[in-house]
Specification:
It contains 3 helices and 22 strands. It is mainly beta.
Length: 320
């Protein structure tokens, strides 16, 4: 039987405006309209991917079907899709990030809210929350928190007396119109100001996209400059104390591309903007980009305004 094929690497993340990273490549060999013919009214298929686990009470597992690891549910438009507490992974430090679906016409990927939108098949996307950097001879493995609150875990490797404590804080970033033009992604570079050897390779790690607010206007004198993205990453404060947000081409693949090079169409991977150096302050967990464009070509760095993440506000924007 022909299966839906997913090409998935160890790090799967949500991205903004329908753009994808090579880390999160989903290829569909079975058109959605073929699935529709086999489903009854209000039935939807959730593809959890090979490592996904369902802990909820609704739905039936599909063991021999057109998906690698599927769940069949009966849900009407507007009803809630399974959430993070119902979807887990068999892979350590792999966190459920949200649902995506594949457009029939051009096979591009769209990222959805947490409710049924009339689509017949949704695919789980994942966020790897482990340690992104190689910090030398450390052999201890620690489990990372899977929620935005602080969590401390200490494990000791049986072959080493080293003890590692991870303190994870979720950090949010709100961009502005000038930053997200051309589908720009946001990466975050983190380092330890007391030890230059503890850092992640420039331009850092790609942030996970949460919400697009298409009606947001930062400057009332420029009503056509609409929209902002909310992104996050999990910041290990036991390792790092400093960060920079970096504007990056959506075509950039950190594993294979030179950040200062060009893509196959001659476009720059470096989208020419970054924020000032930010020293982590535990009283803030959100940084909002300021309105005025700042470009590295003019030797200027963008500034941010620190704040506190308002979950109720952003859930309302997301329609949750």
């Amino acid at each position: 039987m022909k299966k839906l094929v997913l090409v998935l690497s160890s790090l799967l993340v949500l991205t903004s405006c329908g753009n994808t990273n090579s880390d999160n490549s989903i290829k569909q060999e079975l058109k959605n309209n073929q699935l529709v013919q086999m489903l009854e009214e209000n039935q939807v298929i959730l593809n959890l991917t090979p490592n996904g686990l369902y802990n909820g009470a609704k739905g039936n597992n599909l063991e021999d079907y057109y998906v690698e690891n599927g769940l069949l549910l009966t849900l009407s438009v507007g009803e809630a899709l399974p959430e993070k507490d119902e979807i887990t992974s068999s892979v350590k430090d792999n966190e459920f990030a949200g649902w995506a679906y594949i457009n029939d016409e051009d096979e591009t990927i769209s990222y959805t809210t947490s409710v049924i939108e009339g689509i017949k098949m949704y695919h789980a996307t994942w966020n790897y929350t482990g340690d992104y950097s190689d910090i030398g001879n450390q052999t201890t493995q620690s489990t990372t928190t899977t929620n935005p609150t602080t969590d401390t875990t200490t494990n000791t490797d049986t072959t080493s007396s080293t003890t590692t404590s991870e303190i994870i804080e979720r950090i949010y970033f709100v961009d502005k119109y000038w930053w997200h033009l051309d589908g720009a992604e946001t990466y975050v570079y983190v380092w330890n100001s007391q030890d230059d050897s503890i850092n992640n390779v420039w331009p850092g790690i790609k942030m996970t996209h949460l919400v697009w607010d298409g009606e947001y206007i930062a400057d009332e004198t420029k009503p056509n400059e609409k929209g902002c993205n909310l992104r996050y990453f999990d910041f290990d404060t036991s390792l790092y104390d400093s960060l920079i947000f970096v504007r990056v081409s959506p075509n950039f693949d950190k594993e294979t591309d030179d950040f200062n090079g060009k893509d196959e169409n001659g476009g720059d991977y470096n989208y020419g903007a970054q924020t000032v150096d930010i020293t982590y302050d535990p009283q803030y967990d959100l940084y909002e980009l300021d309105n005025d464009p700042k470009w590295m070509s003019e030797n200027e760095k963008a500034t941010v305004t620190p704040g506190v993440y308002d979950e109720a506000y952003w859930n309302k924007i997301a329609g949750i």
